[in-house]
Amino acid sequence: MTDGFPNKPRILRGAFVEYGLSLPPLLVVFQFNPVQLTRNRSLSYTFAGAPAAAAAAQKSGAPPRTLRTEHGRRSSLLDVQREQLVTVEEQKLGFDIRLDATDRLDDGDTVTEQFGIGPQIATLELMTQPKRESVLGGLAARLLHKPDGFSFTRSANPPLILFIFGRKRVLPVNINSLNITETEFSADLNPIRATVSVSLTVIEGSSIPYRYTQTMTEVMSTVGFASAVTDAANVVVPG
Fold this sequence. Notes:
The protein has 239 residues and is of the alpha+beta class. The chain has helices at residues 50-60, 67-72, 77-83, 102-106, 110-115, 118-126, 135-143, 208-223, 225-236; strands at residues 15-18, 27-29, 37-40, 43-47, 84-88, 92-100, 161-164, 170-185, 191-202.
């Protein structure tokens, strides 16, 4: 269905893509990009020897050493930064995917008329299930004489997913939760509207997708350095 604006710029769509070759392949291109995306990273702090110090304090009855008291023993912030122990958790993402069959039904799409948004929901669900449990994958493996399944991923685990959101973010992720709410149905009870709430954990490390995204993050930080210097000057000397 056209929106009446032929010169409207083409908007990139987000997607989930299975990483690795397997049967059946899994791909979901978002019909609508999320309205908002939340990102969270947790950090926790302690000091070297904290468990032993706590045990000694409990045994002697002395006041326990805390991170605050350890900070108080040091006048140099560089010493604080060097000596405290920091645990950096992997980044978590959360957003809603909206699925709606209305436009495709208006366009007379045959698959949508038969199944509504069922195929997209089914693919999302399969992204959380081990490939070993796939009926079609098992049949394909038998035909190809591969008893362990046709896959370059561990079939005992759910498939590894790439979350693609624009050209600067290609992130390997684990799906933590998938909450599907179907809100409208066709006469034969196929879902035609749904919202899927997704929670993800980014798999950080030396993989090519993650290193690419990390490089793009560092490049964008460098690009913004000039304006940051100007803003920093205004903090000290108001313009």
